[in-house]
Amino acid sequence: MTDQPRAVGAPVGSYDEIAQDLQQLRFVAGDVSYAEIVRRIAAHRERRGVDAGNARPARTTVYDAFRAGRTRVNPQLVGEIARVLGASEIEAAQWEERCLLARKNPPAAPAVVPGSGPVGPRPAVVETAAPARGRKFMLILACIGLNVLGFAIVATLGLPLYFDMVGTAIAAIALGPWAGVAVGLSTNAIGLGITDSSSIAFALVNIVGALVWGYGARRLRLCRTFPRYLLLNVLVALSCSVVATALLVLLFNGGTGHASETTTRNLAEMGNPLSVAVLGSNVVHSLADKLLTGFIVLGALGAVRRWIEVPFYDTLSADVMLHLKAVGNPVRGAGHGSRPWPANLVLQASEPGARRGGPKQVADSP
Q: How far apart are alpha carbons 110 and 259 in whole angstroms?
């Protein structure tokens, strides 16, 4: 019994005792990582209706709840931590009550962990917060590099695509819309050295794309399922096309020498007005570019999430796998939209005595 956390109904002690009991609860639950606790809390909050963009607590904030030497603790967060580590609703409320009552019993000197030496634990917070900020900064730099690389490839090879917003999309979805804006602006500033001064004007296109990707993912929840994710990329393509068309017609007389302008000339030769020809060309090429960008970003986010928590990725990737399985087995997916039947339904049909739905499953079996 000595390895179990103290009962939450025990006499209230200091914040240090609460932190020690939380640590013990974490180990009893399977030595759950702080990142996993953050993910569980975010999922729990989303189920309660909290906006996904605001549901995830900072990893350092969660870490601090387990740290000795605290003078303030968020009771609600402690209750959420206990809940995602297996505590019941009543027990979670008791954890919160302990924190509220511990305010009347402020800690003395910070507890010294045996063998840790005289150095207090506070520097560990700096060591955990700094890498988080450092990882985000490195991701932003990598996203800028991706954009510039795509920009340079298109300019060198004369491709009828753009490929200058892959990093913008990654930053906007993983870090938020304004991180995507920062990546987009930096890309177009660097683009001055690759093409010409028109790059600065088209920074507005990158900004619009970042805002639609970021707010579409976080506010409109368009990264929940694969069809919604495709819709998000289509919305980005259409938004960027409208802005790009306005810039091309008003500032550049319809073109800047991009390879996609062959389509513009062909549409104009059919008798369409310049604005219609430019818009039509941009919509066609932007749809192809943004959908391809969306697939690249989807793969890249799988690597990014190893460093940084990416909202919606688990749900989205699971839905993508369901759709891929449906494509691979269209018979099983027939009559159920684009989703395949769960595997356990097929297994149940083969069990002796499984009578409900049996004829239908046998008829659909290969």
A: 66
Structure tokens at 30: 């399977």
Is the CB of residue 237 less than 8 Å from the CB of residue 289?
A: yes
Token representation of residue 268: 């104009």
- Give the CA dihedral 50, 54, 58, 61, nearest 10 degrees: -60
Distance CA 179, CA 177 (A): 5
Mean pLDDT in residue range 290-311: 89
Q: Where in the chain is the domain with CATH 1.10.1760.20?
A: 129-310
pLDDT tens digits along 202-236: 999 999 999 999 999 988 889 888 999 999 999 99
Q: What angle do CA 193, 145, 165 make, to 5 degrees?
A: 90
What is the rounded CA–CA span in Å between residue 201 and residue 199? 6
DSSP string covering 205-251: HHHHHHHHHHHHHHTS-TTSSHHHHHHHHHHHHHHHHHHHHHHHHHH
One CATH from 1.10.1760.20, 3.40.50.12100, 1.10.10.10, 1.10.8.60 for 129-310 = 1.10.1760.20
pTM given for the model: 0.58
Q: Write the DSSP symbol of residue 204.
A: H
Look up residue 88 and give its amino acid.
Answer: S
Rounded distance between C-alpha atoms, residue 241 and residue 281, angstroms: 9
